[in-house]
Each structure stands twice: as C-alpha cells, then as structure tokens.
Design a protein that fits this description.
With about 375 residues, the chain is α/β, with parallel strands linked by helices. The protein has two domains: about 70 residues, no CATH class; about 300 residues, Metal-dependent hydrolases (TIM Barrel). It has ten helices and 20 strands. The strands form four sheets. An eight-stranded parallel β-sheet has the order 5-8-9-10-11-12-13-14, with helices on both faces. The protein has a seven-stranded mixed β-sheet with strand order 3-2-1-4-18-19-20. Helix 7 crosses helix 8. The radius of gyration is 20 Å and the shape is globular. InterPro entries: Amidohydro-rel, GlcNAc_6-P_deAcase, Metal-dep_hydrolase_composite, Metal_Hydrolase. It catalyses: N-acetyl-D-glucosamine 6-phosphate + H2O = D-glucosamine 6-phosphate + acetate. Pfam families: Amidohydro_1 (PF01979). One of its GO terms (molecular function) is metal ion binding. This is N-acetylgalactosamine-6-phosphate deacetylase.
Length: about 375
C-alpha cells in the first residue's frame, strides 16, 4: 500500500486540508484526516488533489486523430497526450465516417478495453445521422441515415459505454428508444431541431446534449430551440467547450446559472493538436490550423479545438468568478472540478471513477495554486508530472 499526504483534497463533495490517501493495487483504500502526529506518508503532494478528469468528446491528441488511424496505438497516444493535462479516462470520439471506419474504430476500442487497467471507457460516435446544415466539419459524403450496420456497431457488447450524437429531426423516437434500451447513451447535436422534436427525443430516452450552443437551433421568442431545452430540461446533461472561442464567457456563465453543476459537463472536442507541437492538419480539402489558441479551417470556421481539460477547468472557474455572484470560492471550484469528473462519470453510469472515495479507482490529479496540473495518476500509477 502507498500512502499519499495531500495538503488539500477535494473528494467530490467537499474540500479537506491535510489528508491521507491510501492506495493499494490501483484502488483507493481509505481517505482520512492526517493528524499532526500522523503526517508521515510515502509521498507528499503539495497542492490540491482531485479526481481525474473524464473527457467524453475527444477526437485526437498527441499528434494523432482517431478518424485517420482508428487503432489501439492511436488510443494509447491520445491518452498520453491528454494525461499531462489531467485526463485519466476518455471516450475517444469518431467524427462522422463510413460504416467500415466506424467498425474499425469499435474494434480498436474493444481491444483497448480488454487490456488491464484501461482508461478507455467506450466510444463516442458523433454521427452519422446529423443535420447537413448544422454538420460543421463533418464530411457531407458520410452524413446519412443510421443503417442496420451502424446500429449493429452502436450496440456491440464489447466496446464499453457508447455515446451517439444524432439530429433528432432525422431519427424517429422509436429508434432512440431502441438504442437506449440496448445501453446506448443518446446525445442531441449538430441539429436544427425545434423544441418539439428535441422534447420528443428526450421523452424517448435521450439524456445528453453535444457541445451546448454550438451547431444547434437557437433561442427565439416563439421557438425555444434546443438551446432552451438544454438549459431548462432536468433530464439532460450538456457538454460545454469552455475554450472561450466556441462559446462566449457570458453564455458559459448562463449555462451554469441555468443548469447548475449537476448537469453541466466540460468537454474538449480536442483534435490531434493537443499534447503535441502540431500546428496544421489536413482535413478533407482544407487545412486545420492552430492560431491564437483555436483551430480553424481555411475559411476561418472553427474545426474542433486545441483545448485540454486542465484549461477547460481553469477557464470555467475564472469566468464564473467574474460573471456570477459566487462568494464561496471553494464551493465554486469544487463544482467546476465535478463538471470535469463526477458529471461525466454519472452520465456514463461509471460508479468507480469521478470521486475520491474508498473503493474507487485511484485516478487523481495534483493541481498547483494556479490550478495547473503538476501530476496525474491513473490506477495509482503516476503517468505525468515531475
């Protein structure tokens, strides 16, 4: 057993000072107050210890893109690229592609999940049944109705938690109900759906909104659109790209004030650039270029992000301090940390991650006073940091 001394620790519920974290075989055995006579520990962590971040929308990292080479090697590289920023588990995300590539991606995820101590929780299929008008960078030639082959891929039993983003105006509630009955988590996104169509999908079992505010129907006086449904319906959890480019800070604050920390989830929508020196990436007949902290195509439109989870947490905490009337800094910080850990774990139905409690996996992050990642541990093993 290894005993860590944490100067500060957030367990998912409250902040604590001077705590002992006991870890054995990758599992948290106990968390208890370290009294002055018991400060001796194997490893002392000077900073704030919190649960590892869980990213449910990550297209690439470490210089590789999942679509370009959906393999175990790519998944390992993505994990390495993101772990330095506190991500300890993820859903690799496949941008709309052919049925063949979807199946190859599923095979890679199945291979990863079969490995001991896997940090790949499943897969996020972003598409293929999206709105052509709201498809963003998703290739038009692959946007299509869900086929029987696609359904078979979505419902495989060997690929962990499956999240599927779809446009509800193109998919019947019966199909959504069938997917949910087979364990698929349905998310609404890249859609021009009106509020009635969105509510029908949620009534059918959809429980998530993909990158709130982006590529969806907006709020109008006589038509709430998907944005209003996301802000007001207690049945859905919304992903938010808090890179300060995809969503205006005031809208991030609005989402927090309307939705609260229980149903707002930080995601990166990261491309290959994160965790690498990559500046450009070929995409279809264009180039994705990294400039001033954002990724754009040749025409200037956004193309995923170069956001990491650590920056998402820091950005969200900073903007909420400025744009909300929050007086308890520790409570606000805890809420933001939960948006990157506990909320995604809850959405995915994962019980052993997202909180630092006895019996959970020892996936945790050490943050300095500026909330920058100093170290990252997965299953009790240090994977990044000095």
């Amino acid at each position: 057993m290894t005993t860590y001394f944490a100067k500060r620790l957030f367990d998912g519920l409250r902040m604590h000072d001077n705590m002992h974290l006991d870890v054995s075989k990758g599992i948290i055995c106990s968390i208890k107050k370290a009294h002055s006579s018991q400060l001796k520990a194997d490893i002392k962590l000077d900073g704030l210890v919190c649960a590892g971040f869980i990213d449910t929308q990550v297209n690439g990292g470490g210089g590789v893109l999942f679509n370009y080479k959906p393999s175990l090697e790519t998944l390992v590289t993505m994990l390495q690229g993101h772990s330095k920023y506190g991500t300890t588990a993820m859903l690799p995300t496949l941008i709309t592609d052919s049925s063949e590539v979807m199946n190859t991606a599923a095979n890679a995820v199945a291979e990863a999940i079969a490995k001991p101590l896997s940090s790949i929780l499943g897969i996020h299929f972003e598409g293929p049944n999206l709105s052509r008008i709201k498809r963003g960078i998703h290739p038009s030639k692959h946007v299509r109705a869900i086929s029987d082959i696609d359904l078979a891929t979505f419902t495989r039993s060997d690929i962990g938690q499956v999240l599927v983003t779809l446009a509800p105006e193109n998919v019947s509630p019966d199909v959504i109900t069938d997917l949910v009955s087979q364990g698929v988590i349905v998310s609404l996104g890249h859609t021009g759906a009106n509020s009635d169509q969105a509510l029908s999908a949620i009534d059918a079992g959809a429980t998530c909104i993909t990158h709130l505010f982006n590529a969806m129907s907006g709020l109008a006086a006589r038509e709430p659109g998907l944005i209003n449904i996301a802000l007001s319906d207690l049945r859905v959890t919304s992903g938010l790209i808090a890179d300060l480019h995809h969503v205006h800070p005031q809208n991030c604050a609005l989402a927090y004030q309307c939705i609260g920390a229980e149903r707002l989830m930080l995601v990166t929508d990261a491309m290959a650039h994160v965790g690498s020196d990559l500046q450009t990436l070929a995409w279809l007949d264009s180039t994705i270029t990294k400039t001033a902290g954002k990724l754009t195509l040749d025409d200037g439109s956004l193309a995923g992000s170069c956001l990491d989870m650590n920056s998402a947490v820091r950005n969200m905490y900073s903007l909420l301090k400025q744009n909300t009337r929050w007086t308890d800094a520790d409570e606000l910080l805890g809420n933001v940390l939960n948006m990157a850990s506990q909320v995604p774990a809850r959405l995915l139905g994962i019980q052993d991650r997202g909180k630092l409690i006895s019996g959970n996996k020892a996936d945790f992050v050490l943050l300095d006073d500026d909330m920058r990642v100093k170290g990252c541990w997965v299953h009790g093993e240090k994977v990044s940091g000095n």
